[in-house]
Amino acid sequence: MFFVFFHKMADFTLELEALRVENARLKEKLKQHLLVEDMLLPSSSNLPRAVIGMNREGGENACPAPPWIAGLSHSLTAAQIQRYSRQLLLPSFGVKAQENLCKGSVLIVGAGGLGSPVALYLAACGVGCIGIMDPDRVELHNLHRQVIHNEASVGETKVSSASRTCLAINSSVKVVEYPFGLDARNALDIMAQYDVVVDASDNVATRYLVSDACVVANKPLVSGAALGMEGQLTVYNYLKFQFCKALKFIQLQGPCYRCLFPTPSPQAACQRCSDAGVLGVVPGIVGTFQALEVIKVLTKVGEPLSARMLILDALSSRIHTVKLRGKNTQCVACGELPQITHITLPNFDYEKFAASPMSDGTPPREQVVGEDQSITCTDYNKLVRGHKSHVLVDVREKHQYDIASLPDSLNIPYAKLPQQLDTIRAAAQKHKHEGDEDMSVYVICRRGNDSQRAVQDLRSAGFNLVYDITGGLLSWAQDVDSTFPAL
Ligand SMILES: [Zn+2]
């Protein structure tokens, strides 16, 4: 009896504690909610609470709009006037431009280094609907440049993290989340719902797809790219009206991506932030310029960067703009006889065309040498633990080797291998004990591709016992030592 009573008391105590925690959580939530309302409508303001939620006309739960609103010649609410006052004060901007922003919609393809500032500024300035598309989840190594995410977002989908940040800045905008990648089958349907498209992607295949789909869907495309210490941006497929000498307006269509780059260059497929690296602030600058171009296109304020390209050299802090070739009448996307249409585009294989995947993930490992010339990281680790004499050659570039490397390894970058054969022979001789057969040489790199080529080259140069360490240091970090940085 006593034990039953004791257990019931314990249950009540636990339940009471849980209710206290829930009560505290709800109080905190209410406090935050009231704080946001206070921020929207400071107590010193004369603005009525009716405008919360940007409801000018009054919805189901809205209070009547203030009397002075009725006499205005524009559609902005009192809260919108207050929030956007600093850009409304600009003589070249004004209420008409703000109305266009509030009514505008933008699809951002990529919520990474470029997409972050684009989404942040478009939400802040009041673009009515922002679609954010990205198939990836936030990783720790994203945070140095993808400033829309934070440490608490690691592991979460990028679109969910970006959406939450946008709404925390401006809860009056609508954010649509697309937690998947753009592909040839979904591109046209999704783009049809937006006024402007932003290419904030990180790979060549997506770049061609976004441009082609914008041509077919007749949408202006604000395209940016950043790599290393350099960046560039332009506006593709932009239609402008110009008053000509014949005293009439004519339509001028700017070039598309294919007008300038009919086929992908072999180098383009290799240029990825995950390989080449990027200084975080560089995509930040380019993405901020992209947000500016979106605002100009939506508001018709200023001269969008059509048929011109802005080029950023972060090392010298130089920005210059070059004139681009105009629209190519032979272009297969936007030319006089287009081959890419709403019928053919969904079946076009962009990954095959660009010879690169539509993601910034690790590219598939090449298979150059056979199993008899390779060793897994796990087996190589056993060999090291067994103190078997050998030579370990790391063929990464020196700046990568300097970040982190395995003990007792010899750094000979792959490009310098032919000149360093004697160095390897000397190292093998040094480790060789009396009576030993030829010394084994193991080769490692970042992902296991250059190391395979190095094994082939070394065997051709007369080294008989040379082995590739399969999967390189990324596999080492995954299979052997989780503390080793998986760069
Ligand atoms: Zn074109």
Can you give keywords for this protein?
487 residues; alpha/beta; Rossmann fold; Oxidized Rhodanese, domain 1; 3 domains; eight-stranded mixed sheet; five-stranded parallel sheet; 17 helices; 15 strands; 36% helix; globular; binds zinc ion; nucleotide-binding; EC 2.7.7.80; metal ion binding
* Mean pLDDT reading: 86
Supply the CATH superfamily name of the largest domain.
NAD(P)-binding Rossmann-like Domain
Distance between the termini: 62 Å
The total count of strands amounts to 15
Describe the sheet with the most strands. 8 strands, mixed
| CATH fold category name of the largest domain | Rossmann fold
CATH class division of the largest domain: Alpha Beta
Strand order of the largest sheet: 3-2-1-4-5-6-9-10
Strand content: 5-15%
Count of runs of 4 or more consecutive helical residues = 17
Helix content: 25-40%
CATH architecture of the largest domain: 3-Layer(aba) Sandwich
Globally, the shape reads globular
* Count of spatially separate domains: 3
Structural class: alpha/beta
Ligands, deduplicated: zinc ion
- Stretches where pLDDT falls below 50 for ≥5 residues? 32-61
- Looking at the chains present, what oligomeric state does this protein adopt? single chain
Radius of gyration: 29 Å
